[in-house]
Amino acid sequence: MIHSSLVSRIQIAPQGPEFSRIVLGLWRLADWRMSPQERVTFLKQALELGITTIDQADIYGDYQSETLLGEALQLAPELRDKLQFVSKCGIKLISTARPAHRIQHYDTSRAHIIASAENSLRSMRIEQLDVLLIHRPDPLMNADEMAEAFEHLQQSGKVRYFGVSNFTPAQFELLAARFPLVTNQVELSLLHLPPLHDGTLDLCQKLRIAPMIWSALGGGDLFRESATTDPQVLRVREVLNALSAELNLPASTIALSWILQHPSHPLVLTGSGRIAALKEAALACQHTLSREHWFRLWCASAGKGVD
């Protein structure tokens, strides 16, 4: 049986919060068609695995995911003190849920950041966010104005810490020069290697800030049943399957272990409503690949050997 100690916890920044290294990603919560009680059960099952951190965003599920989580927390309010809550803001979608939006765009103004955070608290029926992230870099973002919003939310007790998502190293440094940031949530997988080489993870390691990783399984492409002719996918699958047989571990566990092994100490977001998938993710915290195995996978993804 999976034990809660399988999922380790780390402090994600020198002055930041402590999170579970496997994070419950709820961007598809609305697609899972769970009843409120089923959502409660799912949260409890995640907690049993040691997955205590939840990742949300205002726009997820066409602005419905946070509300669905809030319904579950209303049924089981005792869970609030056992979980850490991360959400994001800064994207405005065209949606019937937001009739005033006439064009999809970014908004990192002080007013929007504050209003979005307050709305997320109401939707999830919680009193405080552990971390609020700016969802995407905004070409019009004013670092001083954003810092003012962060300071207001922090001083009012509504948000403990702040970070960003999908920021380049230069964009991260710009905002961090105005206000302390605790993470950068970026895409990384065996099918998407750029953060390893473009300075993103180097900066995180330099600042001792743990990145949060989305699409860690390549958006499911690594394991999707449908046939593919993509040479990268085929190369990586072949090595994953060979290592799975050799190490007697699920291929998904190996793929996540490969990410967790990076010295920037990444946190990995899940994207599944299946408890079996969460168990395979939890196992990744307990297995370290050899350098040879790690580089076999890197070479399969890159389509070349090391120089």
Structure, explained:
With 307 residues, the protein is α/β, with parallel strands linked by helices. It has one domain: NADP-dependent oxidoreductase domain (TIM Barrel, Alpha-Beta Barrel), CATH 3.20.20.100. 40% of the residues lie in helices and 15% in strands. It has twelve helices and twelve strands. The protein has helices spanning 36-48, 60-63, 65-75, 110-124, 143-155, 169-176, 194-197, 200-207, 231-247, 251-260, 275-283, 291-302; strands spanning 9-11, 18-20, 22-25, 53-55, 84-89, 91-92, 105-106, 129-134, 159-165, 184-187, 212-214, 267-269. The strands form three sheets. It has an eight-stranded parallel β-barrel with strand order 3-4-5-8-9-10-11-12, surrounded by four helices. Strands 1-2 form a two-stranded antiparallel sheet. Strand 3, helix 1 (36-48) and strand 4 (53-55) form a beta-alpha-beta unit. It is globular. The N and C termini lie far apart (43 Å). The mean pLDDT is 96.
Could you name the key traits of this structure?
307 residues, alpha/beta, TIM Barrel, two-stranded antiparallel ribbon
Topology:
Blueprint: E1 9-11, E2 18-20, E3 22-25, H1 36-48, E4 53-55, H2 60-63, H3 65-75, E5 84-89, E6 91-92, E7 105-106, H4 110-124, E8 129-134, H5 143-155, E9 159-165, H6 169-176, E10 184-187, H7 194-197, H8 200-207, E11 212-214, H9 231-247, H10 251-260, E12 267-269, H11 275-283, H12 291-302
Parallel strand pairs: 3-4, 3-12, 4-5, 5-8, 8-9, 9-10, 10-11, 11-12
Antiparallel strand pairs: 1-2, 6-7
Helix pairs in contact: 1-3, 3-4, 4-5, 9-10, 9-12, 10-11
